[in-house]
Design brief:
Length: about 250
């Protein structure tokens, strides 16, 4: 399996940015530009995404975590902060358990309530919709859950175009591992600080997450959808900088 990643910047701490469903490392270009002077920046394309290989026939969170681990084995930084968006919240949690250099995890609009477990029937219904009529799902159903009224139209257009570049069967196969993985017990094993930067599109249960993560706190970005790093990159970068400053101090 060929895994594509770009490493830029300069710093003892590596920020590894891991995109969500149907994304790529390109989703983090604004963060690369903001932090490359002080940090080593790693932008990965997970297997099946972006410029990475598509040979894997059935994915898993553990396999995505191996993608992350394989790339970081080539990055010579003593300290790593894993930043995971959406489905990659689980991916970075799993990866952190197998990487000694991880100093912190930053979750971006994901894993908002670990007390809630997806219902299998709901998962099957959603994936079946993608497989049956992916275009209709992306154009008429998904926006209700991913975009806020304030999400810039150009971001909606860009993401819609990127989503529809694959088939519904393929898209469902990439997302299914996220819903099949119970992140709660791995969360109990995490011993590094976990910080979240979340939108207010859907609520976050901070107290629930603090029951599973030993060190969890959340920063809220109001008025954005599921893609805060794309919708309001400057504000997102301010929050990320605040998290990094807190963890460094």
């Amino acid at each position: 399996m060929s895994i594509h990643a770009e490493v830029t910047g300069n710093g003892a701490t590596a920020l590894m940015f891991v995109h969500g469903w149907l994304g790529s490392g390109r989703w983090w270009d604004a963060q690369r530009d903001a932090f490359a002077e002080t940090h080593t920046i790693v932008q990965i394309d997970l297997a099946g995404h972006g410029a990475s290989g598509r040979e894997r026939t059935y994915g898993s969170v553990e396999a995505y975590a191996e993608d992350i681990k394989a790339v970081l084995e080539r990055v010579e930084c003593p300290r790593v902060v894993l930043v995971g968006h959406s489905m990659s919240g689980s991916n970075v949690v799993e990866a952190s358990l197998h990487l000694e250099r991880v100093a912190a995890i930053v979750l971006v609009d994901t894993l908002k309530n670990l007390d809630q477990v997806p219902v299998p029937a709901e998962i099957e219904g959603m994936l079946a919709l993608y497989r049956r009529d992916f275009r209709a799902a992306i154009e008429n159903v998904v926006p209700k859950f991913l975009f806020a009224p304030t999400t810039p139209p150009e971001i909606v257009a860009r993401l819609t175009r990127e989503f529809l570049a694959v088939t519904g069967d393929y898209a469902a196969s990439l997302l299914e591992p996220f819903y099949r993985y119970d992140v709660r017990e791995p969360a109990r094993q995490v011993r590094v600080p976990v910080r979240a930067i979340n939108s207010d599109l859907h609520p976050t249960d901070v107290a629930a997450n603090q029951r599973w993560f030993s060190n969890y706190a959340m920063r809220l970005m109001p008025g954005v959808g599921h893609y805060p790093m794309l919708e309001q990159p400057a504000t997102f970068n301010d929050h990320l900088r605040g998290v990094l400053d807190e963890l460094a101090g």
